[in-house]
């Protein structure tokens, strides 16, 4: 849009700035301060002009300390100018004095721009894939001085200033240069460095000063409730995780064991006084625990900066900044490296679907709907009272795609679990008729969001082949985890919400009624290989009055524990990668709250310890047996052995994969032991019992088959007769000859 600009001449015949320009600089209303301030040629002479509030006298020096001239005060507000004795335009330092003392400052308006025409070209095109190296706050050396380069996108603003403790939060002091072709504003501020809080003061197109804005590209933020961005240097950590990263770069994730431990960093454990653990403290406690319990990955609920604890991080105001709750960004880098050295991957929950409307955030960023849609039918999320990104705007898409690349490059994360994908894909998501706008073809699909997700996945997999993306997508949108070139969205995996829903529904039923709901557990196999699935028992199942997984199991306390152990073994034997939310591995009794730590004392009690031991042993089996993970996403790795014994609520199937012996998974979901139960098996011979969730060491009744069964060929078929313990899952592995 066309914006009003100051167009007065920069100097009169005597070399002095026009009074209107002086007044506009002092008032902070000038549209182009670089045309007035800094060093300017007037005829054959050089003049300097500066705005230094509180000063009574100002002397100009070169950066090498040579005096360059005395400046006169034109305005009591602090506008100075004067003729210089130097002949070459160069950056200047000023010695300012008043009755209270003196101070030095370097003139930001005497420096040239940092960004160049190629940056302008790629930014305008929306194809810049290193925006995080250009926008935000960067500590640099520039034209002989050290300082911080600030750059922010605000194309409709009349003025943008960077403010902080270095200029008394005065928006008149450091008004930025408008790179008009791109809408980027930039300024090099000398003499400051890392650790300085800052925001942007923006005058909107209507001349109204907006609430101070945090930097969308801030790499560090203040601890809430403070909301300023903080100048940060890139993580200086020396990485030692090349072996881990090389493994995953060369791996087919679909054929590897992936067992994910979902963690809320702010409540896994806390200090005795209720304060958060730092990243280093989390590394010391969480990483060894995850290794001992056998998970392959930690998935953190969003750790990007966010103002409101009960949002759990899903309403982020700082996509590029690890939350200050847990210390410096370098601490997160150390955590990831420590996890990698221990053989554990780190996945981040990532939220490109929406953002909160806090005044310091992205909403109405430059006085217009910049990051969001102006029309609330596309730009406002009714479920969460948040703003929806405008995926049709290339600069917004670039902002988000760059963020995905940023976490993969700067922090070596192993994956992104993309939140609320369904809400992005459908224009009518949670909306009634008349509350949404159809796409250009008249449909309900958000074609712009589809294009964004495809671009994000292409760039992530293209630049970081060891990183995986996982969609939380709760509908039957086709080809979520198919490659983009095959018409898919391009994700590596998709959460299997149907598995979670159907199994929890089944296990909430009293055992006597389960025979009427047998299909709840068999139906999922009709689509189990339509996508690359992760089976999620996530935080969503243990909040908002839903209780805990233990509480959802039917029966008395003994039956609840037995059923939960059997359920976990059923899930670990089922095709798909695994995900379990923290606390459920030891059968947390209280519903999760972000405001308190898990109930770790429960591990002192045998039933809870038994559940934890079950999960640990399942993770070991899952990782060590190719049959249980090698074909998680391929139908060739699964075959039913018993699918229709609803009367006894018994299920049995075979898992197989190249490089390992087949494993039979057999579940009995009634509290009745089934003696002399016949299970068909593909091969005659001995089958070793590699887990039995009814084992006494897990807190079960100790019933079983002495660790071994034998399959025999009789009447043209092969089967083994065995005892099925009550409310249990057992796994049998063919013993090699």
TrEMBL record:
Where would I find the Glycosyl hydrolase family 13 catalytic domain in this sequence?
Answer: 262-629
The enzyme's first-digit EC class, named in words, is transferase
Please state the Enzyme Commission number of this protein.
2.4.1.18
Pathway involvement of the protein, from the record = Glycan biosynthesis; glycogen biosynthesis
Pfam families named in the record: Alpha-amylase (PF00128), Alpha-amylase_C (PF02806), CBM_48 (PF02922), GlgB_N (PF22019)
Question: Which GO cellular component terms, listed alphabetically, does the Swiss-Prot or TrEMBL entry include?
Answer: cytosol
Q: Which Gene3D superfamilies match?
A: Glycosidases (3.20.20.80), Golgi alpha-mannosidase II (2.60.40.1180), Immunoglobulins (2.60.40.10)
Recorded GO MF terms: 1,4-alpha-glucan branching enzyme activity; cation binding; hydrolase activity, hydrolyzing O-glycosyl compounds
What the entry lists under InterPro entries is as follows: A-amylase/branching_C, Branching_enzy, GH, GH13_cat_dom, GlgB, GlgB_N, GlgB_N_E_set_prok, Glyco_hydro_13_N
What is the annotated quaternary arrangement, including any partners? Monomer.
Q: What is this protein called?
A: 1,4-alpha-glucan branching enzyme GlgB
Organism of origin is Rhizobium loti
Q: What is the lineage of its organism?
A: Bacteria, Pseudomonadati, Pseudomonadota, Alphaproteobacteria, Hyphomicrobiales
């Amino acid at each position: 849009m066309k914006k009003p600009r100051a167009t007065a001449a920069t100097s009169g015949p005597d070399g002095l700035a026009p009074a209107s320009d002086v007044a506009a600089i002092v008032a902070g209303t000038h549209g182009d301060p670089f045309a007035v301030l800094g060093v300017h040629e007037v005829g054959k002479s050089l003049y300097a002009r500066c705005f230094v509030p509180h000063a009574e006298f100002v002397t100009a020096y070169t950066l090498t300390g040579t005096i360059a001239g005395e400046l006169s005060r034109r305005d009591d507000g602090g506008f100075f100018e004067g003729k210089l004795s130097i002949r070459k335009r160069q950056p200047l330092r000023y010695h300012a004095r008043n009755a209270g003392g003196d101070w030095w400052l370097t003139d930001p308006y005497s420096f040239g721009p940092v960004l160049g025409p190629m940056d302008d070209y790629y930014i305008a095109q929306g194809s810049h894939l290193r925006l995080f190296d250009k926008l935000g706050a960067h500590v640099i050396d520039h034209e002989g001085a050290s300082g911080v380069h600030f750059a922010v996108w605000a194309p409709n603003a009349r003025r943008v200033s960077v403010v902080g403790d270095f200029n008394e939060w005065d928006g008149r002091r450091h008004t930025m240069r408008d790179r008009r072709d791109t809408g980027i504003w930039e300024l090099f501020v000398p003499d400051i460095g890392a650790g300085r809080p800052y925001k942007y003061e923006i005058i909107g197109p209507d001349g109204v000063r907006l609430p101070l804005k945090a930097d969308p590209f801030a790499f560090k933020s203040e601890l809430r409730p403070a909301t300023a961005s903080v100048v940060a240097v890139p993580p200086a950590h020396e990485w030692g995780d090349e072996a881990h990263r090389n493994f995953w770069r060369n791996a087919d994730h679909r054929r590897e064991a992936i067992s994910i431990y979902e963690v809320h960093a702010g409540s896994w454990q806390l200090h005795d006084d209720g304060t958060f653990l730092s990243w280093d403290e989390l590394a010391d406690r969480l990483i060894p625990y995850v290794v001992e319990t056998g998970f392959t990955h930690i998935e953190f609920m969003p750790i990007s900066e966010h103002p409101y604890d009960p949002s759990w991080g899903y309403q982020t105001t700082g996509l590029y900044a690890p939350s200050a709750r847990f210390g410096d960004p370098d601490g997160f880098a150390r955590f990831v490296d420590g996890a990698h050295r221990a053989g554990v991957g780190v996945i981040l929950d990532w939220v490109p679907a929406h953002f909160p409307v806090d005044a310091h955030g992205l909403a109405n960023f430059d006085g217009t709907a910049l990051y969001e849609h102006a029309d609330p039918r596309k730009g406002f999320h009714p479920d969460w009272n948040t703003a929806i990104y405008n995926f049709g705007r290339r600069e917004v898409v670039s902002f988000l795609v760059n963020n995905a690349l940023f976490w993969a490059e700067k922090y070596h994360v192993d994956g992104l679990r993309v939140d609320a994908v369904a809400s992005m894909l459908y224009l009518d998501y949670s909306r009634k008729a008349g509350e949404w706008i159809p796409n250009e073809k008249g449909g309900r699909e958000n074609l712009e969001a589809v294009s964004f997700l495809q671009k994000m996945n292409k760039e992530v997999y293209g630049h970081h082949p060891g990183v995986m993306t996982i969609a939380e997508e709760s509908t039957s949108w086709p080809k979520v985890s198919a490659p983009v070139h095959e018409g898919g969205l391009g994700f590596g995996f998709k959460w299997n919400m149907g598995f979670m829903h159907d199994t929890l529904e089944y296990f909430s039923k009293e055992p006597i009624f389960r025979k009427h709901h047998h299909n709840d557990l068999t139906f999922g196999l009709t689509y189990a290989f339509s996508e690359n699935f992760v089976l999620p028992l996530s935080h969503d199942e243990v909040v908002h009055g839903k209780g805990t997984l233990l509480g959802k199991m039917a029966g008395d306390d003994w039956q609840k524990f037995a059923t939960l152990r059997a359920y976990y073994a059923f899930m670990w034997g089922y095709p798909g990668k695994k995900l379990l939310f923290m606390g459920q591995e030891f059968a947390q009794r209280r519903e999760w709250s972000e405001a308190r730590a898990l109930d770790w004392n429960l591990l002192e009690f045998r039933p809870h310890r038994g559940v934890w031991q079950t999960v640990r042993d399942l993770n070991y089996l899952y990782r060590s047996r190719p049959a249980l993970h090698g074909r998680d996403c391929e139908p060739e790795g699964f075959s039913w052995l018993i699918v229709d014994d609803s009367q006894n609520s018994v299920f049995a199937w075979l898992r197989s994969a190249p490089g390992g012996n087949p494993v039979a998974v057999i579940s009995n979901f009634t509290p009745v032991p089934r003696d002399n139960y016949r299970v068909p098996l593909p091969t005659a011979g001995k089958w070793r019992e590699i887990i039995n969730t009814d084992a006494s060491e897990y807190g079960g009744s100790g019933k079983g088959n002495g660790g071994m069964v034998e399959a025999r060929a009789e009447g043209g078929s092969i089967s083994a007769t065995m005892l099925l313990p009550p409310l249990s899952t057992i796994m049998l592995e063919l013993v090699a000859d």
